[in-house]
């Protein structure tokens, strides 16, 4: 049974369950949505990612969540917290936040609406001293949301990742400390 982590005016943020990979594969795994995230994934890759996320939630009390639209009951995206796990990143193990929204729900403010309670979750219940978010310069929508959330660009954390095409290198990071977040509330 999924845990509900937060609710907003339009969304329920719930943990991922067994069997959710097929739903994500069908609704989120499109060329447009995955364009800046390494491209479309195979179902077994999503299943493995979900298994890691469920294990992280069981072990540390945080993970990625599904964004469920209250009005329709449909999954419209995912968001949450994980550990920086890219072996090329200089800050492996930091709390990393992230999100994506399915294409037919773009430009409705769902990512920001979901990420505000995710930040609250990170800094209160999870106890993260700071969070980071990773993207590329080309992913303008992503880093603009990071700025809107109060995050600060951290050029000292940039790194090259040959798994991504040249237009998505380097990987750039933004950071937000608990103190910065609290002072903005």
UniProtKB/TrEMBL annotation:
SUPFAM superfamilies: Acyl-CoA N-acyltransferases (Nat)
Superkingdom classification of source: Bacteria
Swiss-Prot/TrEMBL keywords: Transferase
Transferase as UniProt keyword: yes
GO molecular function: acyltransferase activity, transferring groups other than amino-acyl groups
Limits of the N-acetyltransferase domain: 11-179
Pfam families: Acetyltransf_3
Chain intervals with Polar residues compositional bias: 169-185
Coiled coil: none
Gene3D superfamilies: 3.40.630.30
Record-linked CDD domains: NAT_SF
Region (Disordered) location: 160-185
Protein name: Putative acetyltransferase
Organism name: Pelagerythrobacter marensis
């Amino acid at each position: 049974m999924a845990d509900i982590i937060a609710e907003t005016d339009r969304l329920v943020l719930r943990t991922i369950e067994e069997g959710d990979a097929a739903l994500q594969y069908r609704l989120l795994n499109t060329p447009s949505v995955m364009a800046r995230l390494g491209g479309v994934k195979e179902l077994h890759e999503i299943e493995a990612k979900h298994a890691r996320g469920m294990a992280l939630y069981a072990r540390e009390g945080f993970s990625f969540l599904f964004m469920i639209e209250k009005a329709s009951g449909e999954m419209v995206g995912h968001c949450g917290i994980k550990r920086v796990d890219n072996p090329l990143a200089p800050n492996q193990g930091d709390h990393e936040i992230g999100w994506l929204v399915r294409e037919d729900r773009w430009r409705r403010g769902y990512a920001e609406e979901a990420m505000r309670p995710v930040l609250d979750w990170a800094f209160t219940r999870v106890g993260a001293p700071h969070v980071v978010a990773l993207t590329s310069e080309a992913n303008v929508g992503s880093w603009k949301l990071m700025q809107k959330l109060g995050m600060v660009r951290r050029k000292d954390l940039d790194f090259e990742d040959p798994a991504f095409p040249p237009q998505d290198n380097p990987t750039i990071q933004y950071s937000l400390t608990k103190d910065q977040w609290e002072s903005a509330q």
